[in-house]
Design goal:
Length: 194
Amino acid sequence: HFLAGERTLSEVTIQTSQGFRIVQAFSAIAPELDALVVDTAAGIAPVVLQLAQAAQTVLVVVCDEPASLTDAYALMKVLSRNHGVKRFRVLANMVRDAVAGRHLYDTLDRVTARFLDVTLEYAGEVPEDPWMRRAIREQKPVVEAYPASPSARALKELARRAVSWPLPETPGGHIEFFAERLAPRAQARLEVVR
Protein backbone atom coordinates (compact mmCIF):
# COMPACT_ATOMS: atom_id res chain seq x y z
CA HIS A 1 0.00 0.00 0.00
CA PHE A 2 2.91 2.36 0.77
CA LEU A 3 4.70 1.63 -2.50
CA ALA A 4 1.48 2.11 -4.43
CA GLY A 5 1.04 5.51 -2.79
CA GLU A 6 -2.18 4.45 -1.08
CA ARG A 7 -0.82 4.84 2.49
CA THR A 8 1.92 6.75 4.29
CA LEU A 9 4.76 4.92 6.03
CA SER A 10 3.30 5.69 9.44
CA GLU A 11 0.00 4.14 8.34
CA VAL A 12 1.68 0.81 7.52
CA THR A 13 3.77 0.64 10.71
CA ILE A 14 2.57 -1.20 13.80
CA GLN A 15 4.42 -0.82 17.12
CA THR A 16 4.58 -3.97 19.28
CA SER A 17 5.00 -4.03 23.03
CA GLN A 18 8.48 -5.57 22.60
CA GLY A 19 9.72 -2.50 20.70
CA PHE A 20 9.43 -4.03 17.24
CA ARG A 21 7.79 -2.17 14.46
CA ILE A 22 6.05 -4.34 11.90
CA VAL A 23 6.14 -2.66 8.52
CA GLN A 24 5.27 -3.17 4.91
CA ALA A 25 7.83 -0.69 3.55
CA PHE A 26 11.51 -0.55 4.26
CA SER A 27 13.92 2.16 3.07
CA ALA A 28 12.54 5.07 5.07
CA ILE A 29 13.25 3.30 8.36
CA ALA A 30 16.68 1.81 7.48
CA PRO A 31 18.74 3.99 9.86
CA GLU A 32 16.54 3.00 12.81
CA LEU A 33 16.74 -0.81 12.43
CA ASP A 34 19.17 -3.41 13.66
CA ALA A 35 17.34 -6.24 11.88
CA LEU A 36 14.24 -6.65 9.77
CA VAL A 37 12.25 -9.87 10.08
CA VAL A 38 9.76 -10.56 7.31
CA ASP A 39 7.23 -13.31 7.93
CA THR A 40 5.72 -14.65 4.72
CA ALA A 41 3.01 -17.14 3.96
CA ALA A 42 3.93 -20.70 3.06
CA GLY A 43 4.27 -21.61 -0.59
CA ILE A 44 5.82 -20.06 -3.67
CA ALA A 45 3.61 -17.06 -4.35
CA PRO A 46 5.46 -14.27 -6.21
CA VAL A 47 5.62 -12.01 -3.14
CA VAL A 48 7.13 -14.83 -1.06
CA LEU A 49 9.80 -15.45 -3.69
CA GLN A 50 10.53 -11.74 -4.04
CA LEU A 51 10.96 -11.19 -0.31
CA ALA A 52 13.05 -14.34 0.13
CA GLN A 53 15.39 -13.26 -2.67
CA ALA A 54 15.94 -9.92 -0.98
CA ALA A 55 16.68 -11.40 2.46
CA GLN A 56 20.14 -11.88 3.89
CA THR A 57 18.97 -15.07 5.57
CA VAL A 58 16.09 -17.30 4.54
CA LEU A 59 14.69 -19.18 7.51
CA VAL A 60 12.36 -21.95 6.39
CA VAL A 61 9.94 -23.03 9.11
CA VAL A 62 8.68 -26.61 8.82
CA CYS A 63 6.51 -28.88 10.89
CA ASP A 64 6.14 -32.64 10.69
CA GLU A 65 3.33 -32.65 8.16
CA PRO A 66 3.58 -33.66 4.50
CA ALA A 67 2.19 -30.33 3.24
CA SER A 68 4.74 -28.38 5.25
CA LEU A 69 7.66 -30.45 4.00
CA THR A 70 6.39 -30.23 0.42
CA ASP A 71 6.02 -26.44 0.66
CA ALA A 72 9.51 -26.09 2.14
CA TYR A 73 11.06 -28.26 -0.57
CA ALA A 74 9.21 -26.41 -3.34
CA LEU A 75 10.31 -23.03 -2.00
CA MET A 76 13.95 -24.09 -1.82
CA LYS A 77 13.77 -25.65 -5.28
CA VAL A 78 12.35 -22.53 -6.94
CA LEU A 79 14.63 -20.13 -5.06
CA SER A 80 17.73 -22.17 -5.80
CA ARG A 81 17.05 -23.00 -9.44
CA ASN A 82 15.41 -19.77 -10.58
CA HIS A 83 16.79 -17.12 -8.25
CA GLY A 84 20.23 -18.24 -7.08
CA VAL A 85 19.40 -18.63 -3.38
CA LYS A 86 21.53 -21.55 -2.25
CA ARG A 87 21.64 -21.33 1.56
CA PHE A 88 18.71 -21.89 3.91
CA ARG A 89 18.30 -22.17 7.65
CA VAL A 90 15.61 -24.58 8.81
CA LEU A 91 13.52 -24.24 11.97
CA ALA A 92 11.53 -27.27 13.10
CA ASN A 93 8.22 -26.03 14.50
CA MET A 94 5.64 -27.74 16.72
CA VAL A 95 7.86 -30.73 17.45
CA ARG A 96 7.71 -33.06 20.43
CA ASP A 97 11.30 -32.37 21.53
CA ALA A 98 14.81 -31.55 20.29
CA VAL A 99 15.34 -35.09 18.97
CA ALA A 100 12.15 -34.88 16.87
CA GLY A 101 13.18 -31.45 15.61
CA ARG A 102 16.58 -32.70 14.52
CA HIS A 103 14.98 -35.76 12.87
CA LEU A 104 12.63 -33.52 10.88
CA TYR A 105 15.57 -31.40 9.74
CA ASP A 106 17.58 -34.49 8.79
CA THR A 107 14.68 -35.77 6.68
CA LEU A 108 14.48 -32.52 4.74
CA ASP A 109 18.27 -32.31 4.46
CA ARG A 110 18.51 -35.82 2.93
CA VAL A 111 15.93 -35.00 0.27
CA THR A 112 17.42 -31.63 -0.65
CA ALA A 113 20.96 -33.07 -0.72
CA ARG A 114 19.80 -35.68 -3.20
CA PHE A 115 17.88 -33.43 -5.59
CA LEU A 116 18.93 -29.80 -5.03
CA ASP A 117 22.15 -27.84 -5.04
CA VAL A 118 21.54 -26.10 -1.70
CA THR A 119 23.05 -25.92 1.77
CA LEU A 120 20.82 -26.32 4.80
CA GLU A 121 21.69 -25.36 8.35
CA TYR A 122 19.70 -26.36 11.39
CA ALA A 123 18.41 -23.29 13.22
CA GLY A 124 16.74 -25.18 16.06
CA GLU A 125 13.26 -26.19 17.09
CA VAL A 126 10.16 -24.76 18.71
CA PRO A 127 8.27 -27.39 20.71
CA GLU A 128 4.58 -28.05 20.46
CA ASP A 129 3.26 -26.10 23.40
CA PRO A 130 -0.26 -25.51 24.77
CA TRP A 131 0.94 -22.10 26.01
CA MET A 132 1.62 -21.07 22.41
CA ARG A 133 -1.92 -22.00 21.38
CA ARG A 134 -3.27 -20.08 24.35
CA ALA A 135 -1.22 -17.00 23.43
CA ILE A 136 -2.51 -17.20 19.86
CA ARG A 137 -6.10 -17.29 21.11
CA GLU A 138 -5.32 -14.25 23.28
CA GLN A 139 -3.70 -12.56 20.25
CA LYS A 140 -0.47 -11.95 22.14
CA PRO A 141 3.11 -12.99 21.45
CA VAL A 142 3.93 -16.06 23.53
CA VAL A 143 7.17 -14.44 24.74
CA GLU A 144 5.06 -11.67 26.26
CA ALA A 145 2.07 -13.65 27.49
CA TYR A 146 3.93 -16.73 28.77
CA PRO A 147 7.67 -15.93 28.84
CA ALA A 148 8.60 -19.07 30.79
CA SER A 149 6.75 -21.43 28.43
CA PRO A 150 8.77 -23.94 26.38
CA SER A 151 7.95 -22.23 23.09
CA ALA A 152 8.84 -18.77 24.42
CA ARG A 153 12.17 -20.07 25.71
CA ALA A 154 12.86 -21.71 22.33
CA LEU A 155 12.07 -18.49 20.45
CA LYS A 156 14.34 -16.49 22.77
CA GLU A 157 17.12 -18.99 22.15
CA LEU A 158 16.57 -18.75 18.39
CA ALA A 159 16.81 -14.95 18.59
CA ARG A 160 19.99 -15.19 20.68
CA ARG A 161 21.63 -17.47 18.11
CA ALA A 162 20.34 -15.52 15.10
CA VAL A 163 22.19 -12.40 16.23
CA SER A 164 25.47 -14.22 15.64
CA TRP A 165 24.61 -15.73 12.25
CA PRO A 166 27.25 -14.61 9.77
CA LEU A 167 26.18 -12.32 6.98
CA PRO A 168 26.30 -13.83 3.49
CA GLU A 169 29.31 -13.14 1.29
CA THR A 170 27.16 -12.05 -1.64
CA PRO A 171 25.44 -8.66 -1.52
CA GLY A 172 21.76 -8.31 -0.90
CA GLY A 173 19.39 -8.34 1.98
CA HIS A 174 19.87 -4.71 2.90
CA ILE A 175 16.86 -2.57 3.68
CA GLU A 176 17.52 -0.55 0.53
CA PHE A 177 17.68 -3.77 -1.48
CA PHE A 178 14.15 -4.60 -0.38
CA ALA A 179 12.92 -1.26 -1.65
CA GLU A 180 14.84 -1.58 -4.90
CA ARG A 181 13.37 -5.04 -5.50
CA LEU A 182 9.83 -3.99 -4.66
CA ALA A 183 9.71 -0.47 -6.09
CA PRO A 184 9.80 -1.45 -9.79
CA ARG A 185 6.49 -3.26 -9.39
CA ALA A 186 4.91 -0.17 -7.86
CA GLN A 187 6.37 2.12 -10.54
CA ALA A 188 5.01 -0.14 -13.27
CA ARG A 189 1.52 0.88 -12.23
CA LEU A 190 2.12 4.46 -13.34
CA GLU A 191 0.48 5.38 -16.61
CA VAL A 192 1.51 8.00 -19.13
CA VAL A 193 -1.29 10.42 -19.91
CA ARG A 194 -1.07 12.17 -23.32
